[in-house]
Amino acid sequence: MAESMKGLKRSHRCTEVTREDIGSEVTLMGWVQKRRNLGSLIFVDLRDRSGLMQIVFDENDIGTEGFEKAGKLRSEFVIAVTGRVEKRSGAVNENLKTGEMEIRALGLRILSESETPPFPIEEGIQTKDELRLKYRYLDLRRPNLQRNLMLRSKVATAVRKFLDGEGFLEIETPMLIKSTPEGARDYLVPSRVHPGSFYALPQSPQLFKQLLMCSGYDRYFQLAKCFRDEDLRADRQPEFTQIDMELSFVDIDDVIDVNERLLAHIFKEAIGVDVPLPIPRMTWQEAMDRYGSDKPDTRFGMELKDVSHVVENCGFGVFTGALKGGGSVRGINAKGQGSMPRKKIDSLVEFAKGYGAKGLAYMAINEDGSCKSSFAKFMTEEELKALTAAMEGEPGDLLLFAADKNKVVWDVLGSLRLEIAKNLGLLHKNEYKFLWVTEFPLLEWSEDQNRFVAMHHPFTMPMEEDLDKIDTDPGAVRAKAYDIVLNGTEIGGGSVRIFQNDVQAKMFEVLGFTKEQAEDRFGFLLNAFKYGVPPHAGLAYGLDRLIMLMAEEDSIREVIAFPKVKDASCLMTEAPGLVDQDQLDELGLQIKAEEEA
User: Fold this and answer.
1) Average pLDDT, stretch 368-387?
2) Could you tell me where the beta strands, DSSP code E, fall in 68-120?
3) How are strands ordered across the β-sheet holding 328-334?
């Protein structure tokens, strides 16, 4: 039978009790982690969000009734205990913050009983994700998840404190907005008041933060909820949170400066890590050439080398064919992996095929300097030596090559270097390597749409020195865009925005928008720009991804309180669900019946 607190007040959380409290009386409240009944004594580990405290129930202290009540305790019962803080009578538990103390119980109230949980409430459990997410309220009691959410809270507080000190204003932007389908798919919300019309949930506050710059709020930020109806991955959710900001009268260096200091502040405050400043910068082109990725992981080497000039006249048709087709031949050197078994090399070839490769050429250099290779018979001794030298190959190394169009070669080798590094244990989660990637292409060609699309968004400023190429060679125009990358994950990105009408009109033209289409989608922003718009720039971080890396987790689901699963559903609340016909009628909606097979 559950009891009430009857005016009882908690004096401490479990781990707030210290050595200074020995001899004093405290009142703790929390959940029973486990109970050990030794006959004359009952030991209970009490858990709250701060950690564990050992409680000792002795009939001589708590009386017969209290001792019998303690005997009924089970895992996850919620209890209130009043007792005296003492030094542990048994061995000190070095693994616990409170390991040298215990509470000798003088009073006990059972505030709530619990059924047996469907899985143990402890760290490192091997429970299936589906079960954990169905009972998320229990999963969230586990210490590691509680630490993650406390870290998230700490980071959010540090962000607000720092940006407030830098003169930023926190301003909220609307959740129900106009759909502007350019990018990921919008979530749509039907309007009851305007039958047949729909709001969209924001993919980001982009247009509104630019409007705030037009309105004179020269430094804005927000911890903004964003929504994208897209296929999910480990670091994607249908709803996610951005640290969003926009600044007026600035250029690239100003945005980078304030954000470097913000990152250094967050990491020091939240996890005690010093971020060396300035953070290194690399152009998009250099990142692709050296790492095959626009979000390079710089915790290890194994950089790509372009060996096209070395093999252009060799006898290996795979290499020369790729070069004749306008592609390139590039390689990576897996140092010390020359003795990798053939079976493992074959698995790397299959891995590469998953990223578009037709195959993977390799050369293993033996310790005696000889080599075994998949293409040695097509090349002379001199050509093989020149190739080895270009790759800085030494005895014991494994050289891997891809030959194709640049995009395929970058994708293949960029992914391959990460896969090999993972297999070799080179990726340390407690090592934090930041990098700014700058000078992105303004546009990229979409095969699906048969047109150029904005690599970031249609309001990104081209680099002034490239503006003359926008009609003749749009793909060569660089953008005033920048991403902040941490350990091979893009944690944030932004750009200087277009604020001149003529440049914006040209951008819409290149993207294939008619004047009417641009007006229909973005009219309110374009109208605002007629009334005096300051030069402005911004950046947004994926807060969930950032916390995931700081918490050394592999999925953002581990740092979000109530996440969705891969099909964007919530296993706990069973959302999305069907609604009453009355609700549909009010909205003027009709559900299309699935066609029978």
Assistant:
1) 89
2) 78-87, 101-112
3) 305-306, 328-334, 398-404, 361-365, 371-373
To the nearest 10°, report the CA torsion of 146, 147, 150, 151.
-150
Q: Pick left, alpha or beta for residue 254 (phi over 0 → left; psi -120 to 50 → alpha; otherwise beta).
A: alpha
Cis-peptide, bond into residue 296, ω within 30° of zero: no
Q: Contact 352/360 with Cβ under 8 angstroms? A: yes
Amino acid letter, residue 576 = P
- d(C-alpha 372, C-alpha 397), whole Å: 11
3-state secondary structure of 96: coil
* Percent of the chain whose predicted confidence (pLDDT) is above 70: 98
- Give the integer Cα–Cα distance in Å for 269 and 272: 6
Which amino acid belongs to residue 166?
E
Let me know: does 11 contact 46? Beta carbons within 8 Å: no
Residue 305 pLDDT: 97
Helix/strand number for the chain, H first, E second: 16, 22
CA dihedral over 116, 121, 126, 130, signed as positive or negative: positive
| Token couple for 393 | 């190959």
Contact 443, 478 (CB under 8 A): no
Q: Is 102 exposed, middle or buried (0-12, 13-18, 19+ CB in 10 A)?
A: buried
Measured in degrees and rounded to the nearest 5, phi and psi for residue 68 equal: -65, -40
| Cβ atoms of 505 and 496 closer than 8 Å | no
Tokens coding 132: 């954990």
CB 244 within 8 A of CB 209: yes
Cβ atoms within 10 Å of 591's Cβ, excluding its own: 9
Q: Distance between alpha carbon 385 and the CA centroid of its chain, in Å?
A: 43
Structure tokens at 141: 């009691």
> What are the backbone dihedrals phi and psi of residue 11, each rounded to the nearest 5 degrees, phi first?
-95, -30
What the block records as the tokens of 297 is 């992981």
For 16, other C-beta atoms within 10 Å of its C-beta total 17
* Residue 222 contacts residue 205 (beta carbons within 8 Å): yes
**CA dist., res. 334 & res. 353, Å (int):** 18
Closest CA to 331 of 402, 244, 238: 402
442 contacts 325 by C-beta, under 8 angstroms? no
Beta-strand pair 219-227/239-248: antiparallel
CA-CA distance, 439 to 282, in Å (whole number)?
9
> How far apart are the C-alpha atoms of 390 and 392, rounded to whole Å?
5
CA angle 33, 38, 41 (to 5 degrees): 85
For 17-47, the pLDDT digits (tens) are: 999 999 999 999 999 999 999 989 999 999 9
DSSP states of 206-241 as a string?
HHHHHHHHHTT--EEEEEEEEE--S---TT--SEEE
Per-residue pLDDT tens digits for 68-100: 999 999 999 999 999 999 998 878 888 888 888
Q: How many CA atoms lie within 13 A of 457 on its CB side?
A: 22
Helix (H) or strand (E) holding 423, with range, is helix 406-423
- Predicted confidence at residue 448, as pLDDT, reads 79
Could you give the maximum distance between any two Cα atoms of the chain, in Å?
A: 94
